[in-house]
Amino acid sequence: MSGQTQRLNVVPTVTMLGVMKIRLTAATRGHALLKKKSDALTVQFRQILKRIVSTKESMGDIMRASSFALTEAKYAAGDSVRHFVLQSVRTASVRVRSRQENVAGVKLPKFEHFTDPSADPKSSSSSSDLTGLARGGQQIQACRAAHVKAIEVLVELASLQTSFLTLDEAIKSTNRRVNALENVVKPRIENTITYIKGELDELEREDFFRLKKIQGYKKREIERQMKSAREFAEEQCAEKLSLQRGISIGAAHNMLTVGGGKDDDIIF
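That's the V-type proton ATPase subunit D sequence above. Prediction below.
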């Protein structure tokens, strides 16, 4: 596209002008709504980005604390702590569930961690509480709490990053639609409306010129008819005068011309 923005190929009529105005109104309204949606998604995007940065900063400390807690548990309870833990756990008590959150028409996936009380409570709660009771049980419980906290942070970070990627794609798609409406659709419709108005004005000027020509033709026709009627009347007067005076028609015409057409003064 070089030079001006292209227009739609339409028939320049009054009906099409109304249709184009309606389309322009709809495109303007849609552009405003999409712009508001893009702004809302951008605000949410920046908030999620801040939360991701803060979560990643805290994740380093939490993962380091969980690693130190595991090392302390191994030091206190010995290498056999792994077998005690595996024997005491049958099913997972910390689980993850997903849901969707609607933000300006965009569904963002959310992951949440929760403790399942129905997951074999005898083996998961009482057995885990008694794991390593004879040797290093306190360190094992601290290690478990540290790793549960690490899992919570990882689940939150996964939820934030998934929402971050979904919002990024939604913002790009919305911005493409906003730019298309602003730079392509609306200018094309506006150029089409300008073209239709110009063509209608040209047709109106042509109709006005045609009417003027018709009026001029009718005026000339009326003048010609009046002139013919006047000439016919003069011819009748000349014949009458020639009969009354016994002169030729040419001499009668001359007498009428000299007398200004008042044959009564000439006759009497």
